[in-house]
Amino acid sequence: MKPPIGAAESEKLEFKARAVLDDPRKVVRELVGFLNAAGGNLWIGVSEQQGRATSVEKFDGIQAARSRLVDAIVGQIEPSLLVGREIIFHEEEVEDDGKGLLRIEVKEGGARPYAELRGEGRFFHIRTGARLRNMSRDELAMAFAKGPAAQRRFQKTQSEVQELLRTSSHEGKPGLTLVLRPSRDPQLQALKFELVSLLMDPGMTGNRTEGWNFIVPGEIGLRSLAGGVIYDQSQSFKVLQVQPNGTLRFQAQSPLLHWNYPPGVPSTLLWPYALLEYPASVFRLASYLFSRFPKATDLDEDDQILFGFAVTGLAGQTLRPGSPLGTRYFRPPKESPGSEYISPVLSVSWDDLRTKPDRCAYLCVRGLYEFFGFDEDDVPAEYNRETGILTFPR
């Protein structure tokens, strides 16, 4: 990702010059502020004037700087975090001599409030607009009041999603697996009747009739399952399971991840549109289900939706950068560095899933492209970086 020169600092964007690495506590304060707000990105090596990025100052020793910051994060933020899940380091604009920039991506914290540990004290920061401030007494009281119960729900759901993703991705045939579940059960009702309508008309959930979706139009294989329903299209290499507690599990076998997938004809080149659209279709379905079923309103805006994404059977598989409609796609493909990709359990707020399901699904796509050694610019342009919406040419 290129540094956003000319962009203004905001609730989700902060710039720091290279000198901030001399005092990691200043970085920790910013990260805590993002965690207690809506997440964001902190650029190190980007100078600003009057809150607007003006220039870059690439520096060497990026790995050493990253290690020092990880040590500070582990020792100076409470509750503890998993680097690589809530906080993700990205090395940007790295040159042949090793000089580059650091971008720290911060997810919205699932165990708020977070504190900076300094001396014998705990300091609770929050980001408001482009400003960092201390949390008010009322904000802290509200966060602590719902914190322990919310944390227990989050951790329990996290473990359940992780286990379901692991077992689902290994018990069946190779392919794509997506597991999604709210941290608080929405208690979906009238599930089977409503789901039949959604499976007959992909347009109801904002999906393309002829796209790479969780359904095959006109082919209904819906049956009851203990605690929910399962849509099993065994002849179409797909399975969709929906439970009343809001758990969605989708699987698409390997043949569906390649262009023109005649059974028995092997292919090693993964088709990018399948990798983009399958996750987006499931997130759109989840957004629709949780919004429209009678008790779905039990979800609050800041309730967390947890999900995991896996692609197995990747040994020998390749992926090209960019959109099949662009010139970047004709660059040499990269081979999978391993036999499987299993993401960490990620989370978004219910408000984000409700209003921006495509942007939420993008987290799955970006993780897979990074696994193949691509950067964010190599994700197909059908995913609009500004709006976060996935669109295809007509």
Question: Could you characterize the architecture of this molecule?
Answer:
This protein is of the alpha+beta class and 394 residues long. It folds into 2 domains: 13-135, Schlafen, AAA domain (Methyltransferase, Cobalt-precorrin-4 Transmethylase, Domain 2, 2-Layer Sandwich); 147-378, no CATH class. The chain is 29% helix and 24% strand. The chain is built from 7 helices and 21 strands. The strands form 6 sheets. Strands 12, 13, 14, 15, 16, 17, 20 and 21 form an 8-stranded antiparallel beta sheet that branches. A 4-stranded mixed beta sheet has the order 1-2-7-6, covered by helices on one side. The longest helix is centred in the middle third of the chain and has 35 residues, at 137-171. It is globular, with a radius of gyration of 22 Å. The model has no long low-confidence stretch (mean pLDDT 85).
